[in-house]
Amino acid sequence: PKIFRIVVLPGDGIGPEVVNEAVRVLETISKASTDFDLKLESHEFGGCAIDSTGEPLPASTLKACQEADAILMGSIGGPKWGVNAKVRPEPGLLALRKTLGLYANIRPANLASDSLLSYSPLRPEIAQGVDMIVVRELIGGLYFGARKEQGTDPDVDTAWDTMIYSVAEVQRITRVAAQIALAANPPLEIHSIDKANVLASSRLWRKVVTETLTTEYPQLTFDHHLVDSAAMFIVANPKKLNGVILTENLFGDILSDQSSVIPGSLGLLPSASLAGAPSAPTIDFKPTSGLYEPIHGSAPDIAGQGIANPIGTILSAAMLLRYSLGLEKPAKAIEKAVRKVLDTPEIGGLGLRTADLGGKVGTKEIGDCIVEEL
Amino acid sequence: PKIFRIVVLPGDGIGPEVVNEAVRVLETISKASTDFDLKLESHEFGGCAIDSTGEPLPASTLKACQEADAILMGSIGGPKWGVNAKVRPEPGLLALRKTLGLYANIRPANLASDSLLSYSPLRPEIAQGVDMIVVRELIGGLYFGARKEQGTDPDVDTAWDTMIYSVAEVQRITRVAAQIALAANPPLEIHSIDKANVLASSRLWRKVVTETLTTEYPQLTFDHHLVDSAAMFIVANPKKLNGVILTENLFGDILSDQSSVIPGSLGLLPSASLAGAPSAPTIDFKPTSGLYEPIHGSAPDIAGQGIANPIGTILSAAMLLRYSLGLEKPAKAIEKAVRKVLDTPEIGGLGLRTADLGGKVGTKEIGDCIVEEL
Ligand SMILES: CC(C)[C@H](C(=O)O)[C@@H](O)C(=O)O
Ligand SMILES: CC(C)[C@H](C(=O)O)[C@@H](O)C(=O)O
User: Fold this and answer.
1) Do B198 and A142 touch (CB under 8 A)?
2) Is A268 inside any structural domain?
3) Which atom of ligand 2 is nearest to the CA of B257?
């Protein structure tokens, strides 16, 4: 059988608990197949790595990630390594993204099941049918441009950051968005988001997106929205942005978080951050490196209680199988099992839901049910 | 009587229609008082100014604005002066803000009346009681930092913008936020929004906000949120951010638009952009210049039909009286009249509402009703 090496980064807070269930799901998938074998190995990353090595991303962890076929992460951070700490976990995550070249962040926001409609903060008729995939550029823009801190020369009383993009950076993320749009049948519409009425980098963005899609993907339809207007739609009429939302790093950070509350619980949603594909127009989408993680944080307030929702991490494992390992069938099987469990209304008199969805079922039990479905 | 000179900039699209009703309201207020006299004069601004003079902000309009006690604006822009036009209206607005030094943009988002709850895209229990005032820095940050367009040297394939803030810029907007918080009884809580886990300008922002509020306004309570997290709260649990939302230019652009859809119609909400106050800690808030406008755009699709909602502009006129002219009493009277009209369920069998709120009443009739109430 083909052997795939998967690095697991449980991280901090609820990270280890939710990752544990996703690992069980992956092991189940692995055992059931004679075609491939998943080799999982854990490494320290984030706050726990700071505690044991002094840095959030130890060299051995980075090396393992570079050599892996894919990376599954939990969540990092916590009050112990807060704003005033000398060494913080976030720079480790940014360094991991940058070093591995993970420029394409993919975050679907949809209701895994209509049975979750009542958890949405939006009116049911507005939330029902929301189905967006945010494709966020992840290693450019304000996050990685030149910056100057307050207190440094020449002007100690100012601080600045640079939002910078090159044609090549916008091209490659546009191609990822296009290929995700084309993977659906019929292809999804692409909504490119910028602030071209003010920013030079957004004018470049809009021009390159337009040229790339028009010349390389004439079969796709797309439009442009200003980021302020997109932020309104996502609340007032999110279905207007159904399809692929293509945007730069900071706008993507804001809009993907904003759209992620529509399904009612952050605990449900997965994400993928991909490198290396596609450098040329192709619809054969094969990343050279991929980091998969739930979108929720480390939730220190409920850590260690066994009540966190593992579904976001389990669905991240499904994305890992799909994108990094090319295993579409087991990916679909996981997604189907998750839907089935969410749609099961009762088990022993209790809703089959974790606390974030008003239920009383624990992290492990949800894992059990999904493993059983598989 | 004291004479106040008010420059009126009707602008494009529905601008002239909605401004017309606000002008009638101001004239009614003026006639009713022997203490003051409002002298209103109209000037060209935006697309209409481009058509007649070649530029969105003609020198004569700018001069009149500089000499006025306050400015009332409608809305500018339209397809005729769209993305591909050589001269566009937006730079005129940015130049007006910058030249007059209008650094403090104030945008309340609340439900003028519970009778509007059913128009909110949020569930009623989530929307009810939302009461936020966004205080957005308006002439700094990415909007006015150095930038480079694609196609210029040294690297023709990149474009960039600079998010830059100085200590003094953050201090003065923090003081405006503090004074707005103090004008309420009890004082409002302040929520400062930044991206301090990534951006140098946000770290300066967080430090200066903290120092200014702690030393100059120890009676106020405040907290900090990351912009991605704030974008989630505004959908999932907006009351958590009730009070004053204090933030920089671009984040304010996004978050104020996002929060403005909660009340159900953009047609209801006013805004103020203020200059010159306060340079020193004081709770006597007196801007040297002020531009007041509804938050909605020029809505070319319904322009000329007499169906636009004038309430956002009328409430902007109330803000004008309050902030620029120090006339709190007539400001309150307008706000009360608006609420009364919104709460009147029926007139001749029709809801007393414009089309954006599902009604059939025209712009003029709403103006009539509010004038009558006064
Ligand atoms: C932790 C933080 C630096 C990060 C970001 O802003 O990219 C997070 O919000 C995310 O979206 O993954
Ligand atoms: C028209 C545009 C430049 C402007 C801005 O981004 O500031 C508008 O969106 C606003 O908020 O007043």
Assistant:
1) yes
2) no
3) 11
Residue A97 predicted with pLDDT over 90: yes
Let me know: does B67 contact B32? Beta carbons within 8 Å. no
Six-digit token string for B12: 């494009």
In-domain check, residue A70: yes
Residues A144 and A250 in one domain: yes
Percentages helix, strand, coil for chain A (3-state, rounded to 5) are 45, 20, 35
Instruction: Tell me the C-alpha distance between B41 and B21, whole Å.
Output: 15
Give me the mean pLDDT over the B295-308 stretch: 94
Total of domains in chain A: 2
Residues A166 and A217 in one domain: yes
For B207-247, what is each residue's pLDDT tens digit?
999 999 999 999 999 999 999 999 999 999 999 999 999 99
The Cα–Cα gap between B29 and B181 comes to 27
Which amino acid appears at position B37 of this protein? D
* Mean pLDDT of the residues in chain A: 93
The rounded Å distance from CA B253 to ligand 2 centre is: 7
Q: Give the separation between CA B50 and CA B350, rounded to whole angstroms.
A: 40
Statement to judge: residues A12 and A74 lie in one domain = yes
Domain closes at, from A261, A276, A301: A261
B97-120 pLDDT, tens digit each:
999 999 999 999 998 778 889 899
Mutate to test the interface with A, among B76, B107, B116, B142 (most CBs of A within 10 A): B142
Helix B89-100 crosses helix B59-67 at what angle (to 10 degrees)? 30
DSSP label at residue B337: H
Evaluate whether residue A266 is within a structural domain.
no
- Tell me: do A155 and A255 sit in the same domain: yes
Residue A360 domain boundaries: 1-102+285-374
**What's the mean pLDDT in B189-206?**
97
Q: Examine the domain organization and report whether A44 and A146 are in the same domain.
A: no
Strand order in the sheet with B147-148: A147-148, A158-166, B158-166, B147-148
Looking at A93-97, A167-171, A194-198, B358-362, which range is the least confident one?
B358-362
- Looking at residue A164, which CATH number applies to its domain? 3.40.718.10
pLDDT for res A167: 98
Q: Is residue A119 part of a domain?
A: no
| pLDDT tens per residue, range A189-220 | 999 999 999 999 999 999 999 999 999 999 99
Q: How confident is the model at residue A67 (pLDDT cuts 50, 70, 90)?
A: very high
Tell me, yes or no, whether A73 and A161 share the same domain. Answer: no
| Residue pointed to by tokens 């127009």 | A281
Arithmetic mean of pLDDT, B185-196? 96
Whether the predicted pLDDT of B282 surpasses 70: no
Q: Which one of B254, B256, B356 would you mutate to disrupt binding with A, by most A Cβ within 10 Å of its Cβ?
A: B254
Q: In ligand 1, which atom is closest to the CA atom of A257?
A: 11
Examine the domain organization and report whether A257 and A166 are in the same domain: yes
Report CA(B78)–ligand 2 centroid distance (Å): 14
The reply to whether A21 and A95 lie within a common domain is yes
**C-beta of B198 in contact with ligand 1 (< 6 A):** yes
* pLDDT over 90 (residue A162): yes
How many angstroms separate the CA atoms of A29 and A99, rounded?
Answer: 30
Q: Is the pLDDT of residue A8 over 60?
A: yes
Percent of chain B whose pLDDT exceeds 70: 96
- For every residue of A227-238, DSSP letters joined together read HHHHHHHHHH-G
Which two three-digit tokens encode residue A189? 């519409």
